[in-house]
TrEMBL record:
Source organism superkingdom: Eukaryota
Name of the molecule in the record: Mitochondrial adenine nucleotide transporter
Keyword set includes Membrane: yes
Organism placement in taxonomy: Eukaryota, Viridiplantae, Streptophyta, Embryophyta, Tracheophyta
Family, as annotated: Belongs to the mitochondrial carrier (TC 2.A.29) family.
Keywords, ordered alphabetically: Membrane, Mitochondrion, Mitochondrion inner membrane, Repeat, Transmembrane, Transmembrane helix, Transport
Keyword Methyltransferase attached: no
InterPro entries, per database record: MCP (IPR002067), MCP_dom_sf (IPR023395), MCP_transmembrane (IPR018108)
Solcar repeats: 30-117, 133-221, 236-337
Bilayer topology: Multi-pass membrane protein
PANTHER family for the chain: SOLUTE CARRIER FAMILY 25
Subcellular localization: Mitochondrion inner membrane
Amino acid sequence: MASETKIVNLAEEAKLAREGVKAAPSYAFTSICKSLVAGGVAGGVSRTAVAPLERLKILLQVQNPHNIKYNGTVQGLKYIWRTEGFRGLFKGNGTNCARIVPNSAVKFFSYEQASKAILQLYQQKTGNEDAQLTPVLRLGAGACAGIIAMSATYPMDMVRGRITVQTEKSPYQYRGMFHALTTVLREEGPRALYKGWLPSVIGVVPYVGLNFAVYESLKDWLVKSNPFGLVQDSELSVTTRLACGAAAGTVGQTVAYPLDVIRRRMQMVGWNHAASVVAGDGRVKAPLEYTGMVDAFRKTVRYEGVGALYKGLVPNSVKVVPSIAIAFVTYEVVKDVLGVEFRISD
């Protein structure tokens, strides 16, 4: 099985590292590049497929409580279609897709390296060279990978959020990702590109960490227990793997969602042209100012209640299953077309 092979490989490389032996490259550079291309295409296709739900989620997160435009998933999508047309459903998606490839590459590579390092330390501490990664250790490796990937691509995520929430009635328009980056740098300074970074990093720990830990641990449990005869020849079916991924994604995003809301709101600080602060008559309302993450939490709960921390959770949850399914299928198809034998997750 893939997960068992992965654990064996990690154990062997950790043993070689302890003995001072330099392991030979496991995969050719070309195969790695093809795999990254396959993962990037899969990420772009899956994100584009759920782009309307992604945009609605962000609009629900940051909308002005005194000027409610989006009351739910169906109503919100209809409102965007009526006021902005088909293109409005996909606003900000180009920027979102542009960060998929580097984010995925850094995240998976960091996870593999963190897994090896953590396994090596764990084996040294326990004195057991055959020790395997536990769910907690996987959580730690996933958290490290998420923090590194988030930090590396955060400016792109920040401007994506701003492009996503602007509407035709916004007095000022970002023309694209590069224009948004340069404008924010010029008008607000370099630090503005990392507004909301702290809650993002804190949110990444349970989100990415739980994704890896729940997904791999759930697969291991299914293989060992084989309930309902789901395992055949030590392999899980595509449907079962999709279910494992959906479960992992649901758990991770539910736990980390309040931090994602706070992150989006902090990203809007200093920008008075967001959809969340433009009234129906075109007048701009003064947005709330936050001095930090704790202050953003406090003001959000005080003025809007605890429920505001979960605004947009429904469309976000609705997009989890199809996003994972499309990404998985697309990755497999592109991988077969390119003749890729290497799998990042193996």
